[in-house]
Amino acid sequence: MITATLSTLQSLPLSSPSHSSSSYSLRHSHGRPFESFENGFRRSSQTHRFDYVDYQETPYRVIERYREMVLIYNNGAFSNLAFAPVLKACSKASALNPGKQIHAQAIKSGLSSDVFVQTSLLAMYSSCGEMETVFNLFDKIPHRNVVTWTAMMDACLRSEQPSRAAVVFCEMQRAGVRPDNFSIVSLLSACARLGALNLGRWVHSFIEKEGLELTVFIGTALVDMYCKCGSIDDALMVFNSMKKKNVQSWNVMLHGLSVHGRGEEALQLFFEMEMDIGIRPNEVTFVGILCGCSHSGLVEEGRFYFDLMWSKYGIEPTVKHYGCMVDLLGRAGLLEEAFKMVMEMPIPPNPVIWGSLLSACRAQNNLGMAERVNQRIIEIHRDSVQGDTSHYVIMSNMYAEAGLNNKMAEARIKIGKKPKGRSWIEIGCDVHEFTVGDVSHSMWLKIKVMLNEIMKKREDHGEEDLQNPHSEKVAVAFGLLSTSSPMPIRIVKNLRICEDCHGVMKLISEVYEREIVLRDCTRFHRFMGGLCSCKDYW
DNA sequence: GTAGGGTTAG
């Protein structure tokens, strides 16, 4: 410890702090200069100019330089200007321990009540996953500004609590704090994750009403929201009206078309994207393209673009690109080729890839290969404490169909207790959160009958129909089309859901032979297609 | 002057 301190001190310039500042500035004079924070550090009553942050540096280097400053001025006082940038660096690096030390120093300096320091601390704890601390901290911030509120929304989104983020937004409005571009983007992100189309539309009209500019960030967030909420045409409308687009805007639209089974249009969009000078497709772009090929059964096109990403753009395929390809080949019935691809890929395959191949084996009814694949999944999961058991569900069903009852029973035991999935539905202007997997429902028998009926209707529609989004139809069914103002959200806890919905959540797990954790209810909306009786129930 | 934002395989 002492050695480290000495060596750090020795490595520092012996000249005055102001001199060290200029030497660093000179060194970087060709790039973005160091941010200058006068009063960042003070010794006695004397103020020194101190530059310690260069945003081009790695977060760890920023933290290191901050520590060097602390060593020099260990008897001095800090101003809030010293803390915010280094806490931002801690956020970027998810560096909890340095963050805690800085928190302690902030308290010692009597600056823990400064809103800049508090907001930076909030963001730091949030990016380190310390949600309890975040909520405690937030409660103790007396004068929250729009940045504080947005940081809190971001914390909710990070911890997979999008409905809470929406509530935070509402509280912010109630507190009389005007939302800005940042908070609107966070709210749109919450809508996207919730599948809350109606709320998203409210946000869109809010943007227009308030005359907020359709910046590239807001535009992209809107497009993403409409895609995730199943309203692809609205997404296209916003996308086409965007004056400025960057690679993320294109990627969002491309991926949206892909997951909606509109692969041909996705490929057309990619063509247009290539025509746009100044836009260079990146690896996310190709995840979107390959996903589109897979969802639309475009095998040859998928192969073509998988090669193109390296040959034309020099992008190395990642595990996600391989995942799309394996899914594409598997769905097309090319099991051997898919298996070969997994075995020969230069990066280690993960359970997602094997799982996708296993689903393909199930679809092709290839028990032999399914067993081989299952073995691989077991090997990968061997070391993990909380293993995903969905592969056993597929195996047990395949064994059941093959009449191998002993093996089926064996697999059933392994399935064990599944964690509860959560989902949300938007009814009117409320966002409702509920959980799935409750087997104790007193109406279960009745539900079962109802589900059979729903499944029959699904079959009558044909499998193809199920691939298409039914958002508009569902919106009507759920009574979503009425808009009310000014406060669009109210979260209902301990929600009762209608028998149909409750049962369908279970059924999805059974039918798709996988554990369903619905992050948004888009898929759920599509699945229901207006067939449930939630509207009457409510 | 310092703090907060959008995309990614099943």
Automatic annotation (TrEMBL):
Keywords: Repeat. Belongs to the PPR family. PCMP-H subfamily. GO terms for molecular function: mRNA binding; zinc ion binding. Residues 454-538 form the DYW domain. This is DYW domain-containing protein. GO terms for biological process: RNA modification. The lineage of its organism: Eukaryota, Viridiplantae, Streptophyta, Embryophyta, Tracheophyta. It comes from the Eukaryota. The keyword rRNA-binding does not apply. It comes from Tetracentron sinense. PANTHER family: PENTATRICOPEPTIDE REPEAT-CONTAINING PROTEIN (PTHR47926), PENTATRICOPEPTIDE REPEAT-CONTAINING PROTEIN ELI1, CHLOROPLASTIC-LIKE ISOFORM X2 (PTHR47926:SF436). Residues 1-27 are annotated as: Disordered. Coiled coil: none annotated. It holds the Pfam family DYW_deaminase. Residues 1-26 have a biased composition (Low complexity).
